[in-house]
Amino acid sequence: MKNKITISDIQKYKDTQVPLSTITVYDYPTSLIINSLEIPMVLVGDSASMVVYGYNNTTPITMDELLLITKSVHRGIDRALIVADMPFMSYQPSNVDAVKNAGKFIKKGGAGAVKLEGGVEYLERILKIIEAGIPVMGHLGLQPQSILKESGYKIQGKSLKEALKIYNDAIALDQAGVFAIVLEGIPHELAQIITEKISVPTIGIGAGKKCDGQIQVFHDLIGSFDSKVPKHAKKYINNYTIIQDVLENYCSDVVNKKFPNKTNSVAMSPAELLKLKKKIENI
After folding, report:
1. What is the pLDDT of residues 91-129, one digit of tens each?
2. 15, 161, 180, 260: most buried by Cβ count inside 10 Å?
3. Taking a C-beta distance cutoff of 8 angstroms, is the pair 120, 149 a contact?
4. Bond before 260 cis per omega within 30 degrees
5. Is 184 among the catalytic positions?
6. What digits encode the pLDDT tens for the residues 10-38?
7. Catalytic-labelled residue, pool 150, 184, 196, 281
8. What are the structural domains of the chain?
9. Is the pTM of this model over 0.85?
10. Which among 161, 95, 90, 164 is positioned nearest to 123, based on CA atoms?
11. How many Å separate Cα 13 from the centre of its chain?
């Protein structure tokens, strides 16, 4: 039995020289792979909206859809801290909704914490969730759930006004008691300033190397789609073409009657086969 990673373990990365590596995960088979590695934290991201369910952005995915995959991830992981992303409109309407839905990820999904987007405008929601005993990870900078308001995915914090807003939000979230903050799509200089100022780990995605850790979307790293990955990501393998080749070879083997062969099949004993044929003849 592996030692389960705790919130305290994650927070210790603030004082270590080793950056925290974390990754999104959405299914049981991938969870088993992650569980075999020394990855301390995983995020069941609302990015599943696109990479699992095929929506255009993160706003359509529902609590039920995210809860379903959170359960599958929990079945495969017994060490890493599982953080569940709270989807669009699962916490925005009210404090009651926020606490209730966060609780579902803990009680039903098996998560150890939740993540939600937003700064001081959602501070009350965050405080209520924490008061209920549920650890919260913040998310500042580029906030995918705000794609409609922002008219697309845009780097945040390049102007003085935007940078100060993100900085003040980070200070407020830190003081509210979040255990970590994701910084997405902001200038690396701003990410460094925030990282050096707040008391909890920063997890960067498109925010430079000065954060206390990094997070990436699993499907970007393994090249699941026949498209370019975002600027902040790195495609380590092209899984799209690998799987495409496998399926082409499989179909070719089926068409040319090379698969299945004897090793892929089972056979009756000659005696039993003879009995069966005689039985059929008598019917």
Report:
1. 999 999 999 999 999 999 999 999 999 999 999 999 999
2. 180
3. no
4. yes
5. yes
6. 999 999 889 999 999 999 999 999 999 99
7. 184
8. 7-237 (3.20.20.60), 242-281 (no CATH)
9. yes
10. 95
11. 20
